[in-house]
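Hello,

Our lab assistant flagged a job as stuck in the queue for most of the afternoon. It eventually completed. Since we weren't sure the result was trustworthy after the delay, we are filing this so someone can double-check. Below is the sequence as submitted and the structure that was eventually returned. Let us know if re-running is recommended.
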Amino acid sequence: MNDRILSLLGICRRAGKLVIGADPSADSIIKRKSRLIIFAKDFSKNSCKPVLSAAHQAGVKVLEINRSKEQLSLALGKLCGVLSIEDKGFSDKLTELINSEMNEQRGELYD
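-- returned structure --
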């Protein structure tokens, strides 16, 4: 796997700083442990409403990753569409990687 984002998510999971699933992620936000919420690009809009609401109220950053639920699931070994990162270092690095990837894709659109 040569995907830096998925690799970092795997490391984050092994470190015990990744929460997988909508309800566990919402709980992580409510407990003020969550630093970043990541959604798969094909995650159900209805399923993400409670998580988005909790994140908005708590001021937790939310990003959509350009990966499918299947790609996330294969990388992490568990079916997932939404993730909560509970570590500032992992959160900052993932935000940087995701934003960098989004900027590269925007650049390709305008070339």
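-- support follow-up --
The delay was a queue issue, not a problem with the job. The result is valid. The two ends are 28 Å apart (CA to CA). The helical segments are 4-14, 22-30, 45-58, 69-76, 88-110.
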